[in-house]
Design a protein that fits this description.
Strand content of chain A: under 5%
CATH class of the largest domain in chain B: Mainly Beta
Oligomer: heterodimer
CATH class of chain A: Mainly Alpha
Shape of chain B: elongated
CATH superfamily of the largest domain in chain B: Cupredoxins -  blue copper proteins
Order of helices and strands of chain A: HHHHHHHHHHHHHHHHHEHHEH
Helix content of chain B: 25-40%
Strand content of chain B: 15-25%
Strand order of the largest sheet of chain B: 8-5-1-2-3-11
CATH superfamily of chain A: Cytochrome c oxidase-like, subunit I domain
CATH topology of chain A: Cytochrome C Oxidase, Chain A
Number of helices of chain A: 20
Number of strands of chain A: 2
Structural class of chain A: mainly alpha
Largest sheet of chain A: 2 strands, antiparallel
Number of domains of chain A: 1
CATH architecture of the largest domain in chain B: Sandwich
Distance between the termini of chain A: 77 Å
Radius of gyration of chain A: 25 Å
CATH architecture of chain A: Up-down Bundle
Structural class of chain B: alpha+beta
Number of strands of chain B: 11
Number of domains of chain B: 2
Helix content of chain A: 55-70%
Largest sheet of chain B: 6 strands, mixed
CATH topology of the largest domain in chain B: Immunoglobulin-like
Chain lengths: ~650, ~325
Amino acid sequence: MTTMIDSIKSFMGWFFVTGDPMIYGADASIALASIGIVAVLTYFKKWKWLWQEWLTSVDHKKIGIMYIIAALLMLFRGGVDALMMRTQLTLPNLHFLDAEHYNQVFTTHGTIMIIFVAMPFIFGLMNIAVPLQIGARDVAFPFLNALSFWLFFVGAMLFNLSFVIGGSPDAGWSSYAPYADVEMNPGVGQNYYLLGVQISGIGSLATGINFLVTILKMRAPGMTLFKMPMFTWSILITSVIVVFAFPAFTVALALMTIDRLFGAHFFTIAAGGSPMLWANLFWFWGHPEVYIVLLPVFGIFSEVIATFAHKTLFGYAVMVWSMVAISLLSFITWLHHFFTMGNTAPVNAFFSISTMLIAIPTGVKIFNWLFTLNKGRIQFTTPMLWALAFIPNFTIGGVTGVMLAMAPADYQYHNSYFLVAHFHSTLIAGTVFGIFCGLHYWWPKMFGYMLDETKGKWSFWIFMISFNVCFMPMYFLGLMGMTRRMYTYPAGLGWTPINVVMTIGAFGMGVGFVLMAYNIIWSAMHGKKDATGDPWNGRTLEWSTASPAAEYNFAHIPEVSERDAFAVTKEKRKSGNTKPVKPYAPIHMPNNTGIPVIMASFMFVAGFGCVFEWYWMAIPGAIGVIACMIARSFVYNDHHYISVEEIKRTEAATGRLS
Amino acid sequence: MKKLKILIKPMLLLLAVPMLTMLTGCSDKIAVLNPQGPVARSQYHLIIWSLIMMSFVLAIVLIIFVYVLARYGRKKSAGYDPDDTGNRKLEIIWMIVPVVICVLLAVPTVKTLFSLSNPPKATAMQSKTAGKTLTIDVTSVQWKWLFRYPNQKIETVNYVVIPAGTPVKFRLHAYDAMNAFWVPELGGQQYTMTDMPMKLWLQADKPGNYDGRSSNYSGKGFAHMTFKVMARSATDFDSWVQSVKSNKPALTHEKYMELLKPNTVKPQEFSSYPELVSKDLNKAQMEALMNGDPVETDKMNGMDMDKENNGKGGHDHND
């Protein structure tokens, strides 16, 4: 009996992460939050509502909202990781975190911010805006869309579980072999990385396919490719990148999983494995990934700048072609992530030049945005502030990118804080400013009320200034020789003052984010209602329907004759030129389905089993996934019609009955 | 317009401050901007050149940015023109100017790139060393640096002594995890890898101590994986070698196996090393050897690594 208790004890000690007050705190707060959520849902009898309205929904708008909620939660976790790192590095030789913890924290920070914040946030915004912008009633494959979301969600949950069960990965978000191989990195942490990212990556790939088809096949009549809104263009191009880049990552993750779980030698030191192959495969996805999270925000900024300058986008065709050029170039620059891995001079020369070339289309876009503002009537709303701040801040990230592209100079920047400063300049001033911009811009469309402008502006200024306080000094720190991923540093190198300033900046960004969260909560209770559906005087079709849009988006599918379709319609209306009213027709919509969430749950079980190499758990999980696929293929009754009466009722409720 | 001018000045100042700090005063703290050898200097020139070009680009963007916001951002600003949707001429200009800038940056980049694969020019005055080079084999082990002098037959740990003014060829290997060998004041980094030998030429102008560290994350002790590069005059270097040879213990097999374990150690030196050490085995090969399995080492001669014999023809400083 005692031996059994002992063995259970030792299993628990290994299974749960122990020995750190912070972890126990996390355990307690996770347990409390879960109990709290269950209690609230039960008390208010909301379980049925949750299942019917959200978990089984295939409505792109609801899926978008779920993406954004999940991404905001992950942003909070990634942000806390960042603050822990900054606290540890404020002064030399601190012991706030030890080396092992610090290594885990920077690994989860990077992975979460890229895979579980930037991508899902963008997927959320494109789910909300793209079908509305092209005048469609849903995406091409609504079932697949729900499945994509749930795969991302369980992938994120699996990855985050490592914090309390089994231990976090610590090989960096790029997880270079051979350090990430089982030889030097035993334990389950790295398995969590591989499986969590893999599962959510499958969802991302499906999203790419889904939006590619949606944009190509489901545009409103008259909307030719070159009449599409710029955000839709950016998503079209991004989807193509996703479809070409993600398979490389899927393969890389699978190979490393096979290495770790089944003792293969793709990336190991032993038996002819090639650690460098991992670097190549990783960055063949990793560099295009940068544009997967940047091109969509270029699209957002284009919409927002045009809207609040009250002008059409300057140089529309050039804007499109520069994005196409960026997407092509993004596939031939991956080697610049490892100029210092012993390539010959001609190879480095090629990749130096191909990288510099990206600056040309990007620069063209910057000037086009500036000239959209020129001769405009600029209105400084919160989304516009984020878009305007993007221009100078992102340009700094861009020009330092050109400096990094010069291979011999990169030998001095590589892996230093100069590099860290550069990619934060692009990913924060680009992606993060962009998703905040999009969040404020489309918020009324999502929920039917506005976020408070004053609080929004305060959070903008605090976040933006703090960002500069944190990351501008970082360039100098890199040139002083401080490298990334150091958990501490000695005194006397002259690094301390800069580190202190950076930590102050980082906490300032935290304050900005908290203020934004407060604004969301405050506005949910007191926010100004958006009765018109067009609070910003928008130019594109999403503003032509109600806020929030009805399940079917448009009672009549809009007809498009020009760019900025809604702006044109409004002009015509002003001159009294309105179209004759057509009668409503029943609308064909997809049915809700529980299969995606169930299937993703089985995927979670399979993934968790693989993490611990418990095949008794993984195999049933995988069978469950396949069973769900089979079940789905026998569902014949997968759609319903919304009756004319119901359409009339819904339209009347928003005062849109024609 | 007046308001505009008020805005532009602080913007330019904002730009000038980092530029000035970088180019003057406190640059001895900024290792990369304080080059102490020809390799670091050629990279420094490239960095400064790109900094000038990029500041120019940034300045233009900022000036236009501030101008349009000041001019069109006020409630009553005149000149609103919703039909201003494109300008072929302007668009061509801002496509061509970046192309020109790219060319201006690419040419010196490629030039420097090719020149760095060759040894820098020796500057040591002594005729004895002029035109000669020194080879040092570097092995990164979790979390320490081993330096082997194949011609002097000595070995040091976590510090390396080199003759000033003499081109030094560092041949880089990794025993286990990947690391990167970086001495910012002497020149940019290269990775150490288990399956591909690497080469890095460095040279110090004058005697002095330079900080080096691993710049690629390799696990728990990574932050402590530092080393000193001590440049000495040629005669001091020779007498240092002699003193190590005569005063320091030999690196025994047992001691070597001890060093290969993942931990951090203090700087140390050895008057000789066993034959096994010079094989540059990686962890997998070493384990195979210890188990008595066949070891494949021909992979270690891949890439453009020199296959020439270390001691051959005037190649080395001390022969």
